[in-house]
Amino acid sequence: MRAITISRPGGPEVLTWAEVPDPVPGAGEVLVEVAAGAVNRADLLQRQGFYDPPPGTSPYPGLECAGRIVALGPGVAGWGVGDEVCALLTGGGYAERVAVPAGQLLPVPAGLDAERAAALPEVVCTVWSNLFMTAHLRPAETVLVHGGASGIGTMAIQLAKAVGARVLVTAGSAAKLERCAELGADVLIDYREQDFVAEVRKATDGAGADVVLDIIGAKYLQRNVEALAVNGRLVIIGLQGGVKGELDLNALLRKRAAVIATNLRGRPLAEKAAIVAAVREHVWPLVEAGVVRPVVDRVLPMADAAEAHRVVEAGEQVGKVVLTV
């Protein structure tokens, strides 16, 4: 088969569409013939040499895909050859075939093609597990979503609105904020020109946000705590603004607040399967009803993965960039 390989750590130019050995599904796995995969920030980090895949997993980038099951490993039940699926992956989505643990499979939602289904698993599992399984966002609470026009952000807006939360977002242009508003965001903050802490306080009559979903990390750490409400929850899922920051613990104590940092790729199989099962139960009906939808900025051939990485690295897209085989 062919897959996108990383010849050495570096820029997008190190990505090559090359012949590689076919994967073989092990016990509890299925082999998926990939129709489409989607680009995530973690793929860029892996390409740069900062985010190696867990030992024993596919060396190729790609954390989600959609396609068709072509083979079953020993012990797989509930799935059959020919089933149309999308999948949460530990890696290997930039390829013609990928072996996937059966617990990380989802049926392609009714009404979606493979290109749009491929844009769902990683962002939906990330958002659902963090906003609802970790931060326990409730109806009528306020959530601040940083990077509202990103893949994570566009999904977080929709899911938070679907459960009745109030959504505040940051983004870096009027055009991106307009797209966030179209998805349901209630308060729009241009981080280039506005202080998001002041804007959050103004929008909440000084109370602050109950939950902050943060992709920035160190750069925003202290300010995120300042933006929290009493009993607020800061969930850090990205480190685009660095890995080391200072925090006034007294401010955290006064608010009885929590700072939580999570990732998805390195979790044990059982935890991933539980997240996928929760997504199938709670989110898939919303997708099939049209309440929540994948936001796809553009679709490119898999062989053009380097161009896709350039787009995401530059922050040119709204939502996801999808790669097709």
Features:
2 domains; 15 strands; single chain; Quinone Oxidoreductase, Chain A, domain 1; 30% helix; NAD(P)H-quinone oxidoreductase; 325 residues; alpha/beta; ADH-like_C
Average pLDDT, all residues: 97
Q: What's the domain count?
A: 2
> Compute the gyration radius: what is it?
19 Å
CATH topology of the largest domain: Quinone Oxidoreductase, Chain A, domain 1
The helix/strand class is alpha/beta
Shape: globular
- CATH architecture name of the largest domain: Alpha-Beta Complex
Count of individual beta strands: 15
Please provide the ordered H/E string of secondary-structure elements. Answer: EEEHEEEEHHEHEHEHEHEHEHHEHE
Helix content: 25-40%
Termini separation (Å)? 11 Å
User: Number of helical segments?
Assistant: 11
What is the CATH class of the largest domain?
Alpha Beta
Largest β sheet strand count, sense and barrel closure: 7 strands, mixed
Name of the CATH homologous superfamily of the largest domain: Medium-chain alcohol dehydrogenases, catalytic domain
InterPro entries: ADH-like_C, ADH-like_N, ER, GroES-like_sf, NAD(P)-bd_dom_sf, Quinone_OxRdtase_PIG3
Keywords: NADP, Oxidoreductase
Domain Enoyl reductase (ER): 10-323
Protein name: NAD(P)H-quinone oxidoreductase
How does this structure look, described?
The chain is of the alpha/beta class and 325 residues long. It folds into two domains: 177 residues, Medium-chain alcohol dehydrogenases, catalytic domain (Quinone Oxidoreductase, Chain A, domain 1, Alpha-Beta Complex), CATH 3.90.180.10; 138 residues, NAD(P)-binding Rossmann-like Domain (Rossmann fold, 3-Layer(aba) Sandwich), CATH 3.40.50.720. It is 30% helix and 26% strand. It has eleven helices and 15 strands. Strands 3, 4, 5, 6, 7, 14 and 15 form a seven-stranded mixed sheet that branches. Helix 8 links the parallel strand 12 and strand 13. Helix 3 packs across helix 4. InterPro entries: ADH-like_C, ADH-like_N, ER, GroES-like_sf, NAD(P)-bd_dom_sf, Quinone_OxRdtase_PIG3. Keywords: NADP, Oxidoreductase. This is NAD(P)H-quinone oxidoreductase.
